[in-house]
Write a structure and sequence with these properties.
By secondary structure, this protein is α/β, with parallel strands linked by helices. It is 44% helix and 12% strand. The chain is globular. Residues 225-230 have low confidence and may be disordered. The structure holds magnesium ion.
Length: 234
């Protein structure tokens, strides 16, 4: 099966944003009287859409109105992104070397994407093919966003491959009829990531950009590497 389109998740795959996001949300929750640690916030909130995160606050954390918490966390998050956000290690080089077409599919809203991915050179590597769950009716794990990507780039779903670090993203890819690779950040503090991603339907998992590059090179049926610069004769 020839894969023609690579669909990258943003947070936790392209950009090393999840620890920053968990830290700022934990601080805002603590100020609202919810004593969750950064690692607990990381475990429970990572990969959720904004709507789902608000639902979790109402249903499980006893916050009738979580909006002020998210507003505070968002303000702090963007300030921290502008100070310290980095690409996931090795991902810039990988993205520039892939032979397939590529796009971004994120459960984040466009404002957050512009104020995170948009700070980095990676934005220009993908623009205009940067798609947010805001653009569809249902976020991941629904297939909507992935099908939007396939449609916009004119590639059949079965020729798309999703790279995502959340079980919700992998499940959405499977629901869209796409293959998926589960990405594990080497620095992720959560245990059981490989098992969770495989259980959600990933073909395989990789740890870090180095393993991902090897997995992508091994995909069958690809054209030869696109015109790499010729080595000058010496
Ligand atoms: Mg993610």
């Amino acid at each position: 099966m020839t894969i023609e389109l690579l669909i990258f998740d943003c947070d936790g795959v392209l950009i090393d944003s999840e620890p920053v996001a968990s830290g700022t949300l934990a601080q805002a929750l603590q100020r609202a009287g919810v004593p969750l640690s950064q690692s607990e916030v990381h475990r429970r909130f990572t990969g959720l859409s904004g709507q789902e995160a608000r639902g979790l606050c109402r249903a499980e954390l006893g916050l009738a109105d979580p909006e002020p918490v998210f507003a505070e966390a968002k303000g702090a998050l963007f300030a921290e992104f502008s100070r310290s956000l980095r690409p996931m290690a090795g991902m810039e080089e990988l993205v520039r070397n892939v032979r397939q077409r590529k796009c971004v599919a994120s459960n984040s809203d466009m404002d957050r994407l512009r104020r995170s991915l948009g700070l980095l050179d990676l934005w220009a590597d993908f623009a205009p093919h940067i798609y947010s769950a805001e653009m569809v009716e249902r976020p991941k794990p629904a297939p909507d966003l992935f099908l939007l990507c396939a449609g916009r780039l004119g590639v059949a779903p079965h020729r798309c491959l999703v790279i995502d670090d959340s079980a919700l993203g992998i499940a959405g890819a499977v629901a869209a009829g796409m293959a998926a690779i589960g990405f594990v950040d080497p620095a992720d503090p959560r245990s059981g990531r490989h098992e969770a991603l495989m259980a959600a339907g990933a073909l395989r998992t990789v740890t870090g950009a180095g393993e991902l590059a090897i997995a992508l090179e091994a995909l069958p049926g690809l054209p030869p590497p696109a015109s790499r610069p010729a080595v000058a004769a010496g």
